[in-house]
């Protein structure tokens, strides 16, 4: 076990801005899923860090799960027969002694769970003018399925063959080089996915951009409440891209399905769709305020120009639906 102390660290943000208000008792009372915070008006100015290494056998094809409550999670698949975790506990309190006392009450450990392992964090139930986080840096066998969660912190996953489910209340999510179904959700943060192969990819953020690169799936969903959606080298039988406020730019893979079912909708922003060679689809595009441009040989039904376009490319086996309320649409 290794401990590191930093003296005189001043907090630059309020101690409890990310915790839900539940009532008033003497001071101010806040609650999260695992503890209660009582804010008495003093700032938690001192900081204490403690690192806890953990290890346990984990066979390829097993599962790993973790819920930090507050703290980042990084998981990488490697050639190994065990799970190795470095848990970083960071405690803030009014004095250095109180911060150290709090940090030493927080004890991460590995426990068996189903066909794998999970991180369990023992922690105090009540804190006065103090707060803490537990961040995890994890190595597991490459063939491992993951279930990860944090209330406040980023999630990063790489080099995994197995299903990945990750959720954070506030923080970005980054996933790269994964073969398996992927489900990612953040309430506030960007999402980036690179080199995914899956039956299902489901990516959602309440506020932030979505970036996809070299993603191949039977079913692909990418949605954001506020931010752009960008996809490069996308190959999917069915794909749904949506943003309430932002542009959508999709470049289909050259060897992607030639008759996909694709929907792209935005309330405020332009849409660009770059088709693969040999595309066969019915095209339906509409804009409330903007123009529609295409360089593809579309057989148009009805009049050419205006705010909407309906036509066919090739045999029309697939469907491309593009809709924006405010922005232009380009099909190429």
Give a quick summary of the entry.
The protein is mainly β. The chain has one helix at 96-103; strands spanning 2-6, 20-23, 28-31, 36-39, 46-57, 62-67, 73-78, 82-93, 107-113, 116-122, 126-128, 131-141, 144-150, 155-161, 164-168, 173-179, 182-186, 191-205, 210-224, 229-243, 248-252, 261-266, 271-274, 281-287, 292-294, 299-300, 308-313, 318-324, 329-331. The chain starts with a strand and ends with a strand.
Q: How would you characterize this protein structure?
A:
The structure is a single chain. By secondary structure, the protein is mainly beta. It folds into two domains: about 1-155, no CATH class; about 190-330, no CATH class. The protein contains one helix and 29 strands. It has a 25-stranded mixed beta sheet that branches. Strand 9 and strand 10 form a beta hairpin. It starts with a strand and ends with a strand. Residues about 1-40 have low confidence and may be disordered.
Number of strands: 29
Give the terminus-to-terminus CA distance. Answer: 58 Å
Beta-strand content bin? over 45%
Global outline? elongated
What's the Cα radius of gyration?
Answer: 24 Å
- Structural class of the helices, strands and pairings? mainly beta
Question: Helix tally?
Answer: 1
